[in-house]
Design a protein that fits this description.
Elements (H helix, E strand, L loop, with lengths): L16 H16 L4 H8 L3 H8 L10 H11 L10 H5 L6
Helix pairs in contact: 2-3, 2-4
């Protein structure tokens, strides 16, 4: 029974959840490849700060740039879609259309 009868509460979805999932995947792939953040950054052609921010779940624009995802995917030898839990959540659209 609710403490406030008659009130309904929407389930709050954390907008950072997809970014945290991406951060875990990138870090997991990096560690599995025995790379440091600096080593991954060099392999991907990115700055170490970019890799560190992404693994911390922070980005300058609130979502990763496609160029960053493409560079990371190439460095790991995977498709960019394999890094994302749900690509549409980052760009707010159905990417299959």
């Amino acid at each position: 029974m609710s403490a406030y009868p008659g009130r309904s509460y929407a389930v709050r979805i954390d907008p950072d959840q997809p970014l945290r999932a991406l951060a875990r995947r990138v870090r997991g792939l990096r560690v599995a490849a025995f790379l440091t953040q600096d080593g991954l950054a060099r392999r991907a052609g990115l700055s170490r700060d970019t890799v560190a921010r992404l693994e911390a779940g922070r980005t300058a624009l609130g979502r990763p740039r496609m160029r960053t995802l493409t560079a990371l995917a190439a460095a790991f030898g995977v498709e960019p879609e394999q890094l994302l839990p749900d690509p549409g959540q980052f760009w707010g659209q159905d990417l299959d259309e």
